[in-house]
Amino acid sequence: PRKSWFIRTTAFKEEMLANNRAIRWYPAHIQTGRFGNFLESNVDWALSRERFWGTPLPIWVCEETGYREAIGSYAELLAKPDVTGLEMWEAAKAKHPDLSEHLKVHKPYIDAITYASPKAPGKRMRRVPEVIDCWFDSGAMPFAQWGWPHRGEEDFRDQFPADFISEAIDQTRGWFYSLLAISTLLFSERAAGASSCTRPYPHPYKNCIVLGHVLGEDGQKMSKSRGNVCDPWDVFDHQGADALRWYFLSAAPPWNPRPFSERLVAEVVQKFLGTFKNTYAFFVLYANIDGFDPARDRCDRPPETLPLHLRHLDRWLLSEFHRLIRTVREEMEDFDATRATRAIEAFLEDLSNWWLRRSRNRFWRGELTVEKRWAYTLLYDVLEGLVRLCAPFVPFITEDIYQNLVRSVYPDAPESVHLSTYPEHDADRIDDALARKMTLLRQIVGLGRSARNTSKIKNRQPLARLVVGGVEEEADFRELLPLLQEELNVKTVTTGGKREAFLSYAIKPNFKALGASAHGRHIPRIKEALAHLEDPTESARRLQGGEILSIEIDGETVPLSADLVEIVPHPKPGWVVAEEGGRFVALDTEITEELRLEGYAAELINKIQFMRKNANFEVTDRIRLYYSENDTLERVFAVHGAHIEAETLAVTTRKGIPQDEEGVNVKTWRVNDLTVTLGVERVG
To answer: How far apart (Å, rounded) are the C-alpha atoms in residues 544 and 151?
Structure first.
């Protein structure tokens, strides 16, 4: 058998197990599972390799007696008696002056160096031919990078042990082990005499994230033969490095194997980066239109004239932003980038699709009033903080935004977002009670949207009433109702409604349950009797309350409990009801002539805005508006013409479409039940 040099790691098995128990592993099961099991079955480390490339094993052996010496440094080697063989390196260096000094301790130069044996006069000490296992080099990294123990003492003590390392799952038998084994050999209590630098566990790393492997989109190992290989450089070119980073951070915990493809990364671009850019672009667009300068025009507190529901909305946004900062810091302290990035995604959704959605009119209309300045200031502060918060995750887009958003306004700000301070939360800003109310409100919004969908009435069509039930315990909930009115486009919202006012009930047999009961033979007669109940709604109420419904069949009383029947709710005419978790909304679907005309106006505004965008008009461009002759349209413009003009920046509105007039963009639309032709023309 081939001979090899070994390190007796088995003698330190218990110390390595103790060291492992002190390390925080992510996922935790690695500690006692894959890595712990490997340590339990530890064998001595076969250190030597018979190769040319590698770190030479620094052992010199007497050619006569076999006496061995381990040499700790090049200086120690040169200090030995009667050293010879240095001329090989000196000749090579003279011939090639650019040779690195590091090469003199490698083959073939180190092999030429011999010295006098202390055990056999006249005999030489020669280096053994083997090199060291490269995994030993990897495990020596914490020490070798500083040149410790020969130098770098201060740097080494400052940086060791590492707070965090990360590599793939296969490194449980590679780098993770070599680091731990060498460190334990050096710094265990039994090695203290040799090291004089003992360390408390854990070392050489305190936390370790074990990465899962990257797979093809089909969930299989990437292979050219399978055709599931995805070149990351293509993803960089098409989607950007930030998109790739965010995908790997947010898609799943890093220790999970995960599929990878450009399509999956592109979804991240749309979901997160697209929303981030669009929210930032919204601020820039309207701030430039209004000439808002964050340094000059900022407003540090909400004005007294701000409506109460908007005060609550703004306070909620600040509360959620400081909650986000706290969450991201806590998750990153716990080495969980996935939870941190998902929290950022959730907040960005709140910012763009709730706060900004409900605040758009504050930016669209009027002069730069104090109310508008406050809205700009709030959005600016949140965006600026969000840029700093996201910088470690998406360093390129945040740097780009930071330069325009911050440096262009404050030239004395840090040169880069990555040189700025990381956000810290203000606990006093976090309002849990307000968060619960806003969560409830948005749940009600979800029910309202569901009712809208059921009714098949577009959200642009205003409706008269929404009744909310099951929220009576929320005393201050009413302060937020204007947000509900705006979001669901209803004229009034009332709370405290009772289901019975909007629902009637039918009772049908539960055929499966009845078939398994003693009443199975009566199913046809039971079905008929239930269809002819005098007051099915009252019977349903009693059944839901736990009472028994008794019906007569051929002189026999058949008792029915709630589990033997199905109670089917039906909204009363003119209403649609949606309910969940004990709460419900009832939507009045009657559309009066007044509401119908307002709905036409909203649809027309939507079509005109689309035409403006399609014609590449600037947001601030004024237009002339034309519409086809139609009695209904004339009534719409008679009632809502001023509103339509204000929303679309129309300076004039004229009946009739110009024929073949250059500069007029014309399009025919279906607006509810009308066919309408519209024309838009830029002024000036």
So the answer is: 81
Beta bridge partners of 495: 468
Identify the H or E element spanning 233. helix 232-238
Q: Is the dihedral of CA 101, 103, 106, 110 positive or negative?
A: negative
Q: What global pTM score does this model have? A: 0.85
In the prediction, which pLDDT does 475 show? 59
If one counts every other C-beta atom within 10 angstroms of the C-beta of residue 220, the result is 11
Burial of 2 (0-12, 13-18, 19+ CB in 10 A): exposed
CATH label, 6-210, candidates 1.10.1280.10, 3.30.565.10, 3.90.79.10, 3.40.50.620: 3.40.50.620
- Domain 262-430's class? mainly alpha
pLDDT band at 476 (very low <50, low <70, confident <90, very high): low
Secondary structure of 30-88 as H, E, C letters: HHHCHHHHHHHCCCCEECEECCCCCCECCEEEECCCCCEEECCCHHHHHCCCCCECCHH
Q: Is there a contact between 119 and 67 (Cβ–Cβ < 8 Å)?
A: yes
Pair 382, 423: CB distance under 8 Å: no
Tell me the DSSP string of 310-330. HHHHHHHHHHHHHHHHHHHHH
Q: What is the C-alpha separation between 270 and 276, in angstroms, rounded?
A: 9
Query: Which residues, at least 6 apart from 418, have a Cβ–Cβ distance to it below 8 Å?
Result: 391, 395, 399
Distance CA 292, CA 298 (A): 8
- 208: nearest Cα among 20, 484, 444, 32: 20
Task: Indicate the domain borders of the chain.
Answer: 6-210, 262-430, 433-500, 503-571, 593-682
Answer yes or no: are the C-beta atoms of 139 and 179 closer than 8 Å.
Answer: yes
Measured CA to CA, the distance from residue 615 to residue 33 in angstroms comes to 63
635 is written with which tokens? 């009534």
- Residue 545: name the closest of 567, 522, 530 by CA: 567
pLDDT of 197 reads: 58
Phi-psi region of 240 (alpha: psi -120 to 50; beta: other; left: phi over 0): left
The rounded distance, in Å, linking the Cα atoms of 595 and 463 is 7
With a cut of 60, say whether residue 437 has pLDDT above it. Answer: yes
